[in-house]
Amino acid sequence: REATARAAAGAPANTRDGVTIEVAANLGTVTDAAEAAAAGADAAGLVRTEFLFVNRAEPPSVSEQERAYRELAEGLGHRPLTLRTLDVGGDKPVPFLPTGQEANPFLGLRGIRLSLARPEILRDQLVAACRVAHDSPVRLMFPMVATRDEVTAALALLDEAITVVGAGRPAGLEVGIMVEVPAAALRVAAFAPLVDFVSIGTNDLTQYTLAAERGNPSVAALADPLDPAVLRLIDEVCRAAPSSVRVAVCGELAADEVAVPVLVGLGVRELSVVPAAVPMVKQAVRQVDLAAAVPLAARAVTLPSAAEVRTLLAGD
Ligand code: PEP
Ligand code: MG
Predict the structure, then answer these.
(1) Model confidence over 270-304: pLDDT tens digits?
(2) Residue 177 pairs with which residues in a beta bridge?
(3) Helices marked H in 39-147 — which ranges?
(4) 167's torsion region: left (phi>0), alpha (psi -120 to 50) or beta?
(5) I need a surface site. Which of 6, 38, 151, 226 has the fewest CB within 10 A?
(6) Could you give the CA distance from residue 215 to residue 196 in angstroms, rounded to a whole number?
(7) Biggest alpha carbon distance in the chain?
(8) How many angstroms does the Cα of residue 7 sit away from the middle of ligand 1?
(9) Which atom of ligand 1 is nearest to the CA of 48?
């Protein structure tokens, strides 16, 4: 019986009209990988690699990172592993990566900005990822991208890492960016020639779109990822992405059952959520009829408020 349940969980999530949506898991530790596989995750859509870097005096070595990434890949049964490069700074300080005093850390030296300021640390991470990518599918993802120059700089470091590892570009390697800054959401066409996928981080995208700090209870009511302004940016990303560039969502919105038809209706084809939510999200996808979800999403984008979007979705 357990085997049957596991097979159902592992079956792909197809909409009623037969479009497959990848339902992936967000991982924050090595042990999450087995849980994700058991829950039926098709991939890891976001590995928050920060767990390897926080609470220590020095960065992890290449071989320590390689070991952790291999363990993740094995725990996942060699399903695709989306490794997000180090996303610290701002609210997530690390002693060996000082950012200096910042009045507005969320607008400061964080994510890819901090990694590019310390290229040797990013290069080591890319070397570890490339070593694993020769044996198991790896999707590299850069966080907090705002400009095309950041992506070209990161890709230059990736080329160096590939040279260090030797044996050419790993066959199973894909490259993508997180879209979590409005500037990136507005310019996906400029990034498209450089990437295989984009993954929308609705947690930060909501924070930056509404200028409402995440986790600040005084402005929590403003920071609704179903705000039509956020949906409009998601719509823009889906429209601008050519068919060669997969659009994912890995922010918490992806695990909101009522949001699934809207995201899929806008054109999102991968949802990455906490492992425990994978079966629920797969079930939600199986209820979606694209012929209805596309106009539903188009209508949601035009509504005057998040509250009205939620009312529309509750009545669905
Ligand atoms: C996001 O910003 O939506 C995201 C998935 O990244 P994090 O929550 O780690 O900032
Ligand atoms: Mg983020």
Answers:
(1) 999 999 999 999 999 999 999 999 999 999 999 99
(2) 142, 198
(3) 62-75, 112-117, 119-133
(4) left
(5) 6
(6) 31
(7) 57
(8) 30
(9) 9
Identify the CA nearest to 156 among candidates 113, 181, 111, 126: 126
Which ligand does the CA of 252 lie closest to? 1
Q: Whose CA is nearest to atom 6 of ligand 1?
A: 201
Residue 172 burial (CB count, 10 A): 16
Would you say the pTM of this structure is higher than 0.95? Answer: yes
Q: Which residues line ligand 1 (CB under 6 A)?
A: 46, 48, 87, 180, 201-204, 250-251
Considering every ligand atom shown, identify the ligand nearest to the alpha carbon of residue 48 and give its number: 1
Q: Measured in angstroms, how far is the CA atom of residue 48 from the centroid of ligand 2?
A: 10
From 87, 200, 250, 273, give the residue whose CB has the most ligand 1 atoms within 8 Å, as the site to mutate. 250
Please answer whether residues 92 and 105 qualify as being in contact, where contact means their C-beta atoms are separated by less than 8 angstroms.
Answer: no
- Cα-based distances in Å from 22 to 5, 15, 197, 258: 19, 11, 13, 17
Q: Which two tokens stand for residue 234?
A: 């998601």
CB distance 274 to 26 below 8 Å: yes
Rounded to whole angstroms, the Cα distance separating 37 from 241 reads 29
Q: Rounded to the nearest whole angstrom, what is the distance from the C-alpha of residue 202 to the centroid of ligand 2? A: 8
Strands 138-142 and 13-14, by their bridges, are unpaired
Of 180, 226, 230, 234, best ligand 1 pocket probe by most atoms within 8 Å of the beta carbon: 180
pLDDT tens digit sequence for 15-30: 999 999 999 999 999 9
Residue 251 alpha carbon, nearest atom of ligand 1:
3
The DSSP result for 162-188, as a single string, is HHHH-SSS-TTEEEEEEE-SHHHHTTH
Map residue 20 onto helix, strand or coil.
Answer: strand
The residue ranges of the chain whose pLDDT is under 70 are 1-7, 316
